[in-house]
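Posting this for the archive.
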Amino acid sequence: MPLGYNNYLSSLRIICKQVDGHEMSPHTLTEWIQFRFGTGEKQARKIESFLRRIEVLTLADDGLKVGKPASKWIESQDSGILLAFLHSRVQFFGEMLSEVSEQPRSSEELRLAAANYGFNWTTRTQVGRRRGWLQSAGMIMPLDGGTLTITDTGRDLLAKLTVHRPGFNPTGPAISEPLPTKERGGSDYKSPARQEATERRRVFEVDPDLIDRGTAAHMDVQDELAKAVRSAGLEPRSPEFEGPQFDIAWQIGDSAFVVEVKSMTKQNEDRQLRLGLGQVLSYAFLLDWPGTNDVQAVLAVEHPPTDTYWSELCEEHGVILTWPGIFEDLFD
């Protein structure tokens, strides 16, 4: 984000105000960021893409909108709301706060500590990006000598977060770091992290998709589909840092299949189906993998919908609706 470590939140507030007051596309916002903050085109594009990818900004038919978590942060002026949301979206975020709570640490020490969580960063860039959010919110502060330490405000927030432990293999809804490849899309498939699912607490009001992705039913459906993909002689893939945050995907020839998984109860079935359909259409639109000319959207649910019109609705929008027991039909 522009304006330095102390001003990430100030920069975001300026961007949100601009989006809220004008009809802007991703392209026009990128140009505005360049003009307003004096950044290069590449940096501006990364800022816009990151904010949209973590849903601080969302894209509607009439342009970009400020997402609900960011709106609540602006209305309440409580940076903890935004930081808790970022923790749910960005890995080694709350964990970095936890690391500096034990003792002051330098950026290099934090880079090395990240390796214990599965990140092999070769530079301190990723540490610096997380530092900007935490420092601008008053959660951490620099000391003489260049080390970082937690503040009392940071300790209050940390007490409300569920953080992973060293040795945790990063998976699930949070965004992992890129493992770029030009030969194929996605990253190696990662099974959902079950050890953390029962520990996750609701800190503030949370995106319902994050809650769904933490349920055992969601994990079971996702892993069963991954097994079916492997049984068909294909390789399941997980999302990268750059790009849509789908649950699972694979490639057949020059066609990519991108999947959103949804668990369902009797009470939330319609809501989950509506949410899942919108998500997977967005993922299919945004997915851009090397060697693919076509993207097929797939909505995988826990069981057949009670209302049969959902199959017809998905078909009308070019989405395959599937569930355990008929996954093999995807590969006929």
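The two ends are 47 Å apart (CA to CA). The chain has three domains: 5-72, 78-158, 187-331.
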